[in-house]
Design a protein that fits this description.
Keywords: Endoplasmic reticulum, FAD, Flavoprotein, FMN, Membrane, NADP, Oxidoreductase, Transmembrane, Transmembrane helix. It comes from Rynchops niger (Black skimmer). The structure is a single chain. This protein is an alpha/beta fold. The chain folds into 4 domains: about 160 residues, 3-Layer(aba) Sandwich (Rossmann fold), CATH 3.40.50.360; about 120 residues, Translation factors (Elongation Factor Tu (Ef-tu), domain 3); about 130 residues, NADPH-cytochrome p450 Reductase, Chain A, domain 3, CATH 1.20.990.10; about 150 residues, Rossmann fold (3-Layer(aba) Sandwich). Helix 11 packs across helix 12, helix 18 runs parallel beside helix 20 and helix 20 packs across helix 21. The longest helix is centred in the N-terminal third of the chain and has 42 residues.
């Protein structure tokens, strides 16, 4: 367009020059020359225009091409699919459920495909009716405070703005949430409601999975009623095929260039050797641990403070953000799986998708070794889901063990109860199941195909980038407990981090990490008061907040009241950051330091008790001074108890009924004045 514009400017300038020449001389020679020049100019102009228009056509085609490439409709037509299962997944569970549903379809004479909404143009949903017996299923997890997962953000934005007619679309939604959170299953509920508003036809009721209860059972219960509804709607019947279908085929590499083999990288091959920003989930930065110290002075637990060096990474973070780390499984667990299955773990292999049209070519980066896959890519410590037990059952040579596995994978009440007690409540991981079922010896490649991906772990950053621009601090407690079977289970990430000792040779002190942005933010105006409530490791983001308020004060800014409510078990055992907090309090940065020691006296004292004790001051800060409230820590008990305490304070001092007080607090949340960073 710029070139064409320049050409038209030349055309406007040229004729006046020609006219001035005409005015000065009128000889026949001049007229002939002018005519010749005009003719040549006209010919040149049309010739040039013609040449310039030609390249424009392929340009227009190239713009349209990605839309065609990202059309799930074209892909479904090409591969003969009629069911598409979209997933909004943050930790991999919704993706796993979507894969299970798409595999189910063949039992009913249908063909399904799981799809990441981030990879497709979802406006094509209006065209799904072009395919016979077509159906869109949505497995949608809710993340944070009622937010969509990262990969479903574009889909959510499109749904909010769309005015498309989806009257030909048939759909069903299964939501994944957690009842301990304020906005339980908000994303699943929204997608279900919004699709109906746009004219789509719901063919089965919304499923609401609760991770605080038994998410697997919720999914199975929904699924066993979902498929009969699909059969009835389309007039199809189950084919009776319950056989195991492999999604990937094993290729063993006997002669392979080791430079082409993955050794734990999340995305690009050799990305850990040749680091290139920007750093994210698919391209983590290898940060060196420069400090790892124990925070508590006593007790059975191990609470720790780690510092990660992010110099030269170009990583930027704000107080309140989360750091994601990719841990590695304990090598002893990996070795035991190799031994029990009689496998050479250093065999180099690939698992290649049998569906050549699939965007997902491998279940994890390939080629790689079994050792690498079990160490860096696969979750071997969580109790396996029922679909894994179902697929593995065929390899049990003992009839009673095979029957037990099939029963636990069934939807019968007795089977669900057995799965709950023997697997979930006993916290049996895959190694424990193999140990307790001597006849179960599956091929290791099929096991690797079935196990879910090992996920990144998220921690609230315990530092301010204003004070520590080249470091990210983590505060964590190691997870370790004895199961009902007498086994000692250890948390993957916290025990891995515990062993990350600062080391000059670097190899044993590197942590693959990236930063995930959060809405947990200090007020825009430093003069706004803040009330921070964070017992235990919930103190983490508030260390960053206090550091930042101290820095702002040093810059000469007017800083409002900075009030902290912290809690721990014993003052002499697990009072985290005691010296730092005392110093901030002494310097006047921390206006109030309120600490509850829950087990130092006969009657337990928690942060909510201290809030009640100071209720008049709390109300004054919130109602008169527009204070912002921040809560970090346990969602199941603490966050709920704290919220109930605020309801009581508001009702008492605001002269409100309970419903009015609840509405008042909800409005604070909507305005961003009551923020949560909680986990269950």
């Amino acid at each position: 367009l710029t070139i064409m514009g320049d050409a038209s400017m030349e055309l406007n300038i040229s004729p006046p020059d020609d006219t001035s020449q005409q005015d000065s001389l009128f000889s026949m020679t001049d007229v002939f020359l002018i005519s010749l020049i005009t003719g040549l100019f006209t010919y040149w102009f049309f010739f040039r225009k013609k040449k310039e228009e030609v390249p424009d056509l392929p340009k227009m085609q190239s713009v349209a091409a990605p839309v065609r490439d990202s059309s799930f409709i074209e892909k479904m037509k090409k591969t003969g699919r009629n069911i598409v299962v979209f997933y909004g997944s943050q930790t991999g569970t919704a993706e796993e459920f979507a894969n299970r549903l798409s595999k189910d379809a063949h039992r009913y004479g249908l063909r399904g495909m799981a799809a990441d909404p981030e990879e497709y143009d979802l406006s094509d949903l209006s065209r799904l009716s072009e395919i016979d017996k077509s159906l869109a299923v949505f497995c949608m997890a809710t993340y944070g405070e009622g937010d969509p997962t990262d990969n479903a953000q574009d889909f959510y934005d499109w749904l909010q703005e769309a005015d498309t007619d989806l009257s030909g679309l048939r759909y069903a939604v299964f939501g994944l949430g957690n009842k301990t959170y304020e906005h339980f299953n908000a994303m699943g509920k929204y997608v279900d409601k919004r699709l109906e508003e746009l004219g789509a036809q719901r063919i089965f009721e919304l499923g609401l999975g609760d991770d605080d209860g038994n998410l697997e059972e919720d999914f199975i219960t929904w699924r066993e009623q979902f498929w009969p509804a699909v059969c009835e709607h389309f007039g199809v019947e189950a084919t009776g095929e319950e056989s195991s279908i492999r999604q990937y085929e094993l290729v063993v590499h006997t002669d392979v260039n080791m430079n082409k083999v993955y050794t734990g990288e999340m995305g690009r091959l050799k990305s850990y050797e040749n680091q290139k920003p920007p750093f994210d989930a698919k391209n983590p930065f290898l940060a060196q641990v420069t400090e790892n110290r124990k925070l508590n002075e006593g007790g059975e637990r191990h609470l720790m403070h780690l510092e990660l060096d992010i110099s030269n990474s170009k990583i930027r973070y704000e107080s309140g953000d989360h750091v994601a780390v990719y841990p590695a499984n304990d090598s002893s667990l990996v070795n035991q799986i190799g031994e029990i299955l009689g496998t050479d773990l250093d065999t180099i292999m690939s698992l290649n998708n049998l569906d050549e049209e699939s965007n997902k070519k491998h279940p994890f980066p390939c080629p790689t070794s079994y050792r690498t896959a079990l160490t860096y890519y696969l979750d071997i410590t969580n109790p396996p889901r029922t679909n894994v037990l179902y697929e593995l059952a065929q390899y049990a040579t003992d009839a009673s063990e095979q029957e037990r596995l099939r029963k636990m994978a069934s939807s019968a009440a007795e089977g669900k109860a057995l799965y709950l007690s023997w697997v979930v409540e006993a916290r049996r991981n895959i190694l424990a199941i193999l140990q307790d079922m001597p006849s179960l010896r599956p091929p290791i490649d099929h096991l690797c195909e079935l196990l879910p991906r090992l996920q990144a772990r998220y921690y609230s950053i315990a530092s301010s980038s204003k004070v520590h621009p080249n470091a990210i601090h983590i505060c964590a407690v190691t997870v370790e407990y004895e199961t009902k079977t007498g086994r000692l289970n250890k948390g993957v990430a916290t025990n891995w981090l515990k062993n990350k000792v600062p080391d000059e040779n670097r190899s044993s002190s590197l942590v693959p990490m990236y930063v995930r942005k959060s809405q947990f933010r200090l007020p825009f105006k430093p003069s706004t008061p803040v009330i921070m409530i964070g017992p235990g490791t919930g103190i983490a983001p508030f260390i960053g907040f206090i550091q930042e308020r101290a820095w702002l004060k040093q810059q000469g800014k007017e800083v409002g009241d900075t009030v902290l409510y912290y809690g721990c078990r014993h003052e002499r055992e697990d009072y985290l950051y005691r010296e730092e907090l005392a110093r901030f309090h002494q310097e006047g940065v921390l206006t109030q330091l309120n600490v509850a020691f829950s087990r130092d006296q006969a009657e337990k004292v928690y942060v909510q008790h201290l809030l009640k004790k100071n209720k008049e001051n709390i109300w004054k800060l919130v109602n008169e001074e527009n204070a912002h409230i921040y809560v970090c820590g346990d969602a199941r008990n603490m966050a709920r108890d704290v919220q109930n305490t605020f309801y009581e304070i508001v009702a008492e001092f605001g002269n409100m009924s309970q419903p009015q007080a609840m509405d008042y607090v909800k409005k604070l949340m909507t305005k961003g004045r009551y923020s949560l960073d909680v986990w269950s």
